[in-house]
Amino acid sequence: xxxxxxxxxxxxxxxxxxxxxxxxxxxxxxxxxxxxxxxxxxxxxxxxxxxxxxxxxxxxxxxxxxxxxxxxxxxxxxxxxxxxxxxxxxxxxxxxxxxxxxxxxxxxxxxxxxxxxxxxxxxxxxxxxxxxxxxxxxxxxxxxxxxxxxxxxxxxxxxxxxxxxxxxxxxxxxxxxxxxxxxxxxxxxxxxxxxxxxxxxxxxxxxxxxxxxxxxxxxxxxxxxxxxx
Length: 229
Fold this sequence. Notes:
- By secondary structure, the chain is α/β, with parallel strands linked by helices.
- It contains three helices and eleven strands; from the N terminus they run βαβββββαββββαβ.
- Helix 2 (about 100-120) packs across helix 3.
């Protein structure tokens, strides 16, 4: 993959954010982009919510109970987001780097594989089902949207999350799929410790080893300034 030298990436640690407002912020950021807009990576977590992809089937939503269900514009089926799950949102102009979607998906997956390996955990990706798995249990899920050549949505990495809500759905459309998290695998930690450990692996697999990393403010950016970076 050929990329321009020394890309600049703004990284934001957004803490806990309600799902819908942040989703709308991702859309607005992408719509407001110009060719010169700096790419960003957002790290966050959400209060409990089920999200349904564009072509998701309601048959996989078994018993949501009091957890909100949101229909969104990413690929994939139904999944759960909640506290203790690290959300990784790469807002990247793929055209700028002649980067295919498969390259981005692989970079997200392999970053988790490498992070797990740092703690002696053998994690793998699967050709038939996006995400990262450990002994058949799913550790991370990937669901993207490409809009105007730019990526939004991203990856959910289970760090130390209540897994019970996953029993209310067929996760990612797979019956009997079991979920796991880093804590259960003996490698848990605070989200504020996990994302800085994950970031170098992600940048490496994106081909951004020499990227200029700028730490953005820990808040959702003002869309009015999205094209002015």
